[in-house]
Design a protein that fits this description.
The protein is of the alpha/beta class and 187 residues long. It has a single domain, classed as Pyruvate-ferredoxin Oxidoreductase, domain 3 (3-Layer(aba) Sandwich), CATH 3.40.920.10. It has 7 helices and 6 strands. The protein has a 6-stranded mixed beta sheet with strand order 2-3-1-4-5-6, covered by helices on one side.
């Protein structure tokens, strides 16, 4: 089973990103879950979203998981949330930051010793420059495609294009550019 935890602020698209990823994977025949947990639901409040993916029927609906991947799409949450909670030594972190990986890890002691499993990309900057809004959900999925090699990037973008199909073409194209940039820029 593949488990993913998203750390975000309400309004940054983590729930939509989790649902989009689940839709892409469901189209391949996988069993999927996408759900979120947040308090007051005010824009800007810290929240988490989750994905589970498996070949077998998913009967576990608990929020608790030992994630294979942790996406931190709001840079401030890397410092204020316990992003390593319930993680093991194999958990992979994709963190939105303008900092170099070594600088980021030096500021987050819990990541020391996990350098090979930490990937950094400035999803907020990419989203702002491509989509025109600081909604980093699709860029983090582009980075995830690079890090996980789950899908060929063009195959993933084609699947996401279908998921985003109700949006104006200009917005879809901007999201495709954001996905590609994050794929290319993640380190």
């Amino acid at each position: 089973m593949l488990e993913i935890r998203w750390h975000s602020r309400a309004g940054q698209g983590a729930v939509t990103g989790a649902k989009g990823l689940a839709s892409v994977l469901a189209a391949t025949g996988k069993q999927v879950q996408a759900f979120s947990f947040y308090g007051s639901a005010k824009r800007g409040a810290a929240m988490t979203a989750y994905n589970r993916v498996d070949d077998e029927l998913l009967l576990n609906h608990e929020r608790y998981m030992c994630p294979n991947y942790v996406f931190v799409i709001d840079p401030g949450l890397a410092y204020s949330d316990n992003i390593t909670e319930d993680c093991d030594e194999n958990t992979v972190f994709i963190i939105t930051s303008h900092l170099e990986k070594s600088d980021l890890i030096s500021l987050i002691p819990a990541l020391e010793g996990r350098e090979d499993n930490v990937f950094v990309v400035d999803c907020l900057k990419i989203a702002q420059e491509t989509i025109g809004r600081p909604i980093p959900n699709t860029p983090v999925l582009g980075a995830f495609m690079k890090v996980s090699s789950m899908f060929d990037i063009q195959e993933f973008k084609d699947a996401m294009r279908k998921i985003l199909g109700k949006l104006p073409e200009k917005i879809i194209d901007a999201n495709m550019l954001a996905i590609q940039r994050a794929y290319d820029e993640v380190k």
